[in-house]
Every structure is written in structure tokens, then in C-alpha cells.
Amino acid sequence: MTGAPDDVSGAHGSNDSRGSSHSGSGRRAEQRALRRVAAEGLPFLRARTRVLRGLLGWSLLEFAQTFAGGYAVARALDDGFLAGEPRTGTLWLALAAVAVVPAFLAQRGVFAGLADLVEPLRDGLVRRATARALTTEGGNPTTGTGAVSRVTHQSEIARDGWAGLVLALRGFVFTSAGALAGLATLSPLLLVVVLPPLLLGTGLFLATLIPMGARQRDYLDADEAFAAHTGRTTAALRDIAATGAADPIAGRSRELAEAQTAAARSLARWSALRIIALAVGERLPPVLLLAAAPWLMDHGLTTGGLIGAFTYLTTSLAPALNALLAALGTAGGRLLVVLDRFTGRAELPPDPAAAPDGRGAVHRTVPRTAAVVPVPRAELRQVSFAYGPRARPVLDRLDLRLLPGDHLAVVGPSGSGKSTLAAVLAGVARPTAGEVRWLGRPAAGQEPTAVRTLLPQQPYVFTGTLRDNLRYLRPGAPDGDLAAAVTAIGLDALAARLGGLDAPLDPRRLSQGERQLVALGRAHVATAPLLVLDEATSHLDPAAEARAETALAARADTLVVVAHRLSSARRAARVLVMDGTRTEEGTPDELLTRSALFRELTGRWAPPQAPEAPPGQADQADQAVRSSR
Ligand SMILES: Nc1ncnc2c1ncn2[C@@H]1O[C@H](COP(=O)(O)OP(=O)(O)OP(=O)(O)O)[C@@H](O)[C@H]1O
Q1: What is the pTM of this model?
Q2: Backbone CA torsion sign across 112, 118, 123, 124
Q3: Would the ipTM clear 0.95, i.e. be above it?
């Protein structure tokens, strides 16, 4: 299988837009995140019981003030103004006013205690994330500091979200406790009227939290995928027109736009449910109180008690509930996402905003330490693939994990499915069953070109300049990176022959090997974390191939090579041998002992080593090797 041009294959890759299964996995992800954050959060709180006790003490003053507010109003009416005793009424109201003073002091105490609860969280997150960023991005101080500043920013979000949540939760618990105690004191029957809608509204709201968090994730993913696709398409309009790829690209754009619309609609539906929950919890109790007033008064509730109950509902319970639900809905959601990143993932995903040209933290990760569990760059989970409903499967329940720093060679006889595997891994072909994941998330819905570069055997080289061609996957690439690619890949001779980077380049005047070199140079300039070479060096001589592969292995974060020669497999740390739908994986040495097919391929490959040839002559050398297969 040969591939379409990189960008085109990425653009019309058959990643499906989000459907219900994606939402389901979003919900599960949200539940997992919640469990993970709870598992780490509880020990944090347990270690701070003294601070929590302090907050509790201050909060009791707020309880007292809330209680006094409604109760004093009731007494002021019943024992004072309605009983013809205005002095008594005034005294009760004065008492309610005085109760505000300790509550004011309590606020000061709460804020002081809050700092002891919030700052250690932030410090801990920064420490953890900084250590992690420096460990996983060792050897690259630039991206290391980028990651550090990124996590510092996210830890600030966590701190603010956590502080908002503690304040709102604490306020709600003590205010509602004060109000409910007051209502019970005025008449226990008031609880019969007020509690059901209050509990129903709160429960309904809590039930929306996880699904709504999942929808928010879906929406953000869809939004990012669409924005990334639009950015890349806009930058490549000329080439899209030149290659006649407008239709598939427009189709992909439509698909992404529809996915975004569907995600927005789903989010809006859940928001509507949330508004209903708020209305039930906040607005229904006073309405029910009014409706039940005659019955309550028949059962002994006084006029003052009724007004006092209204005071509780409107000045205490409703604002506290509103503040809690607002904090849970906004700060809580953000906090969960950020804490999930800190607790659940070894690395934050590459941040396209880390540099204007999209050069995120995607360089090769040098050492992996035992303490860090890196996020797989790509993963196949039980993936099957067939070219048609009745066709024989090419891949059958294949599992494969590619971690940062991995270099995997894929070998096998012709027709064994190597190119199919490359296409599925790169998101160009959709699996018939199973799941492809990139950077720890389902590949479906992610923008393929942001995650991987796929170089097919027949490269796409267009009329223009060498500079244009090298910058094709990263339009803003600085000259220094182009020069580094030219030297590393071995494009110097071609650049000199053409007359420099800005001299006109006519693809028809390049040999197959030279076209492959240009594409390899382009892959060196690109910064997607996963690089897949599908016989992309087949027209190079062994020396040129070794040079290009070594350069790309050092440059790419994770490299997969559909191997053309034994030397490619020998250079890789791991080899996947494909034999029909059967596969074997291991180091080259392990496979020499374990796999008969690998030994056979090795024997077939080994004898003829073509003489080294400059790129211009690479095709002849290549043919010598190919004819031997
Ligand atoms: N577009 C297609 N439609 C139908 N069948 C296909 C298609 N592309 C490949 N196949 C079949 O799928 C199987 C695997 O093909 P694939 O190209 O992945 O193998 P390969 O190992 O890369 O082969 P080679 O080394 O010759 O490139 C083969 O039987 C092939 O005939």
C-alpha cells in the first residue's frame, strides 16, 4: 500500500467524529478522573485535620448568624411588632444585626485558614509537575522550562478552583445547616415543605456533574480538532488545489464541524437540565412555602414564623446553594480536569501554545526513569482491520504500545499487512474493531497531523522550492531547523545541485531517491510526536538510509519504520514481525532465537549489501537490493 500525501491522508483520515460511544468513554474518563483525584485528595485532607478543625470553628459562627437571622425576624414580628411591642421587635432585629459582627470575624478566620489548605496544594502540584517535566523531558532544557511554566499556570488554576470550592462548600454546609435548624425551630413542618425540592434540585444538579464534564471535554476536543484542521488547511490551500484534494478535505472539514455542532448541542442539553435543577432547588421552596402557608398556619405556624422562614429561604439557603452549584459547575470542573492531569498522567499532553509554530514538548525523550510512567504516544488495543466486510482480516486483535523514545521496526513478507498497520496507526484507515489511541486518548477526534507524520513510499514533492517543500508540514519552521534537517538527512548534495534552498525545484527532475530524501527532510522539520515511515527510504542506498533513519530516530519522539532492509530492523530497539494476522514482537536478538520467520527474512535480506551510492544514484543501488528479495 502506498499512501496519499501526508497532509491529505491526515486531512481525510477516517477518524470518526464523536458519537455516543465517545461520550460514553468521556463519562468513564470523568469517573476515573474523579476516583483518581479522590484517592489522592483524601490523604491530603487527612494530613490537614488541624486546619480543617480551625475552619470548622470559624464556620460555626456563620451557622449561628444564619440561625439568628430568620429566628430574630420571626420573634421580632410575633413578640414585638405584631404583639404591639415595638421595643421588643426592635431588640430582636438589633440582635440579628449584631450577629453579623462575629460572622464578619469568621470570614477573616476562614480566609486565614484557607491559605493553609490551598497553598500546600499548589506547592505540592508545582513540585510534582516540575520534577516530572524535568525527568521526562530531560536533555532538552527549552521544552523542559516550557512544560514547567505550563504546569505552573495550571497549578494556579487548581489553586483558585480549590479555594473557590472550599469556600462555597463550607459556606453551603454551615449556612444551610443554620437555616434548616432555624426552620425546624420555627416549625418542624417547614422542613417537610422545604427539604424535598431542595434535595431534589441538589441531587439533580450533582447527577449532571459527570456527564456534563464529559460533554465539556468532548466539546473542547471537537473544538481543538476543528481549529487545528482549519489552521493546517488554510496554510496548505495552494497545495490542496494543486493535488486535487479539495473534496476529501472539505469532507473532513464538514465531518469535524458536524462533530463540533453535535458536541455543542449535547452540552446545551445538559446545561438546560442544570438550569432546571437550579430552579427546583432554589426557586421551588419559596413557592411551595407560599402554597403551603394556610396548611402550615393551621398547624401552628405563626405569621412571624412564616416571614422568618421566607428570610431563611431567600437570604440564606438560595444564595448558598447558588454559590455552591456555580462553584461546582465552573471551578469544580476545571479543578477536576487540572488535578486529573497532575495525578493521572505522567506528562501533560504537548501544548501547541508552547511555541507559535506548534513546536511543543515533542522531542525525543532521552532517559525513562522508573518513577515515571509515560503516556504511550500511540497504542493499538485489540485492533482488527479488513479491507471489506467479506475480506480476509489483515490485522486481527492486535495490541501494540509505543512509548516516548520507542523505535519499532515492522517486518514481514510482502502482503503481510505492514502498510495497513502503518495506515491504521497513523489514523488513515479506521480499524474494523478495537481502538487506536494517541497520547493516551482515543485517536478518533484528534487532528492526525498534530500527532503523527506518515511518510509513504511514494513521497509527495511539489513544484516550488526546496524550502517550501521542507516547511510543508510546519510552515513557520525557522531557517536553523531547515539547515539542521538538510545536514542530518543528507540533503546537502541535492540542495547544492538545485542551487540552494530557494532555487526552483521541479519534482519531475528528481529521482525517486531524491524525492524520498526531500520527504525525509520534511519529516525532520515537522514536530509531530509520532513518526511513521512506510518504506519511506526504499529508494535510498543503505548508507543514505542509515543516515536518514538515525537522524530521524534522534529527532522524532517515537519512530515506527516499516523496514525495507535488515539493517533497518537491526537499528530498531524493537521489531514487530508480521505473518498474516499472526505477529511476534521483541528485540532483534530475541526474535532471531524465537521467530523462524524473522530468521528466514534475515537470511533473505542479509547477503547482498548494495554499494554505497550518493543520493542521485540511490535508485540503482536500491534496485539491486530489491531484486534480491
Ligand atoms: N486498498 C486495498 N484494498 C484491498 N486489499 C488491500 C488494499 N491494500 C492492501 N490490500 C491487501 O491487504 C493485505 C496487506 O497489504 P499491505 O500493503 O498492508 O501489506 P505489506 O506487508 O505492506 O506489503 P508490501 O510489503 O508488499 O508493501 C494484502 O493482501 C493486500 O493485497
Answers
A1: 0.46
A2: positive
A3: yes
